[in-house]
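Dear colleague,

Thank you for sharing your sequence with our group. We've completed the structure prediction you requested, and as agreed, I am returning the results in plain text so they can be pasted directly into your records. Please verify that the sequence below matches your submission; if there's any discrepancy, let me know and we will rerun it promptly.
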Amino acid sequence: MDFPDWNEQIAGLPGANILQTRQWAELKSHFGWQPIFRTWESPKGSVEAAALILVRTVRLAAGLLKIRVMYVPRGPLLDWNNEALRIRVLDDLQTLAKEQAAIFIKIDADLELGSGIPGDETAEEHAVGFAVTQELSARGWLFSDEQIQFRNTVLVDLEEPEEALLARMKQKTRYNVRLAAKKGVVVRVGIEEDLPALYQIYAETSIRDGFVIRDEGYYLQLWGIFFQAGLLTPLIADYNGEIIAAVMLFHYAGKAWYIHGMSRDQHREKMPNYLLQWEAMRHAKAAGCQIYDLWGAPDEFNENDSMWGVFRFKEGLGGRVSRTLGAWDFPTKPIIYKMYTQVLPKVLDLMRRRGKEKTRQQAGLS
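Please find the predicted structure tokens below.
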């Protein structure tokens, strides 16, 4: 692939994200996506915006129809306050989609619309985020029915001392962190040879908690690529020498992400997940990260949202809610795009049903 120094070029840009790295491009290239690396330079020649753009050909109607789609995961990266720059970047992305004969291009930049739970007295709305949504709508972009990443998340500020991080947690969370250690749970840094076992626990977790994951080959590729690049630290909770839970801690450009977590049914009363999250914060802080992204919060902040239970756990860790732009599509071929958006949910539902059964088989539960 091009741009061997891509990660270094984008590390200082606003919103630099693990899904915009060279390693993410490498992973996706193994699963049908072609990466395009695009930068925008200032008059002085420095990179002031960038985008890893993924391109894929999709077959519909039993393979009779081939269409091309484009996706900028957690990008583009730029200072969205710079109106001239954002106009330039959006113009170029729209032009590129047309040149590539894609039916649409999707972006889901890590641009905050606001922070805090809507309706709370501490909630804030951000004017730039609102302005960008207005501009996107005026340009013909559509808020996407296919939100690939979580639109909202919880961010923990790691710049305070450890004592302050603990103090910011909810009392019950802090109690459970200490309880896990008292009960004999020990957290260690995993090695590459642990990854197959961790997938098995991840598969068990997905079946128990009712979410869909990909097959083993995908995760071993993903974890292996980022582990070898030094951008992933597996943190494993052991009890009496047995793995009972784990967290995959991704880290890049001063930020850490909790994207994959897993736990067994056994020994859940020992609260290993609480101790794991605390150790993840400590490891991320020691690695120079200023922010820990807990990767996901509800779309609607009420008990009816499927993410509510997980959110309450994350909320207890002392972070703040971050509400971001979400995914937006620019259709270049509106009729085909509309057909695609009508067919896609049915295809995804079928894939999820098949994926659940395949996961059960790989976990030895069928």
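Summary note from our side: The CA atoms of residues 52 and 233 lie 23 Å apart.

Kind regards,
the structure core
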